[in-house]
Amino acid sequence: MGIDSTKKEQAKWKAYFDLCKPRVVALLVITAMVGVVLASPPGELSLFILVVSSIGIGLGAAAGAVINQLVERESDAKMARTEGRPLPQGKLDQQHAFVFALLLAASSVFILTAWVNVLTAILTFVSMIGYAVIYTMYLKKATPQNIVIGGLAGATPPLLGWTSVTNSIDPQGLLLVLIIYTWTPPHFWALAIHRRDDYAKVNLPMLPVTHGIEFTKFSILGYTIIMILVTLLPYLIFMSGWIYLLSATVLNLYFLYMVLLLTFSKKENAAIKTFVYSINYLLLLFISMVVDHYLVVI
């Protein structure tokens, strides 16, 4: 009985962990950490702010993920990509999930208010509401441009990291938001093409469902070009140097290559390969900013 009880407890804790969308939250936290690093002059990085702000921002993002799954539990149960989530599988009930989301949100606001600053706490909470309520409850079901309009909520973590240091909303922090904002449509629409039938099954007006796959491919190409231009701005405004420029150029060229394959070739799995690369792209792009920030080449 003792072993069975332990296994049940472990399974329940894993269900709570999975409810937080840990892989998504991890990417958001990494971009927030980059914001902290870039806002800190070399040699003046506060490890305390880096750790505490990452925890607070991560908890806020996790709260939004839990609310998202609460709202979408019925549609999740009908989609192959999401049917294994804790709520459709009955691993957790709605009441426990809701209380869990409240605890995560409250913890996020408390930690950021007590040990970082009020501005970051407010912006983190607003971002959570933007994703969990405005995007999930309204925009996602209302328009095929849902990810374009609602993408701002998911683009804010680097700004949150930035404000953790400066306690102000600065143009460079907003530029980091703009990079993720323009990256989001190519990233998400590539997945939407791959999972078009899933979205059609639950009547979600994703762009491939409402306007077709070919239209979506050219939309991805258009936003990719915009994204490439935006990612050059950190160099052009002297926020980053040539190490970032070289890295961004290489990453952008391969991104464009992947998108052109998706748009004009008939290769199988081109959409999901583009989606996977887009995640690695964003991670490597932000890492290159950090390297450029610290590495002084004479």
Q: Keywords for this structure?
A:
Tetracycline Repressor, domain 2, 15 helices, 0% strand, 298 residues, 2 domains, Four Helix Bundle (Hemerythrin (Met), subunit A), mainly alpha
What does this structure look like?
By secondary structure, the protein is mainly alpha-helical. The chain folds into 2 domains: 1-152, Tetracycline Repressor, domain 2 (Orthogonal Bundle); 170-298, Up-down Bundle (Four Helix Bundle (Hemerythrin (Met), subunit A)). 80% of the residues lie in helices and 0% in strands. It has helices spanning 2-19, 22-39, 47-71, 73-76, 94-115, 118-142, 146-155, 157-166, 171-194, 196-201, 207-210, 213-231, 233-236, 242-264, 270-294. The model has no long low-confidence stretch (mean pLDDT 94).
Task: Give a quick summary of the entry.
With 298 residues, the protein is mainly α.
Strand content: under 5%
- Any low-confidence stretches, pLDDT <50, length ≥5? none
Helix proportion: over 70%
The domain tally reads: 2
Extended strand count: 0
Which structural category do the helix and sheet elements fall into? mainly alpha
What name is given to the CATH topology of the largest domain? Tetracycline Repressor, domain 2
Rg from Cα: 20 Å
Major β-sheet annotation? none
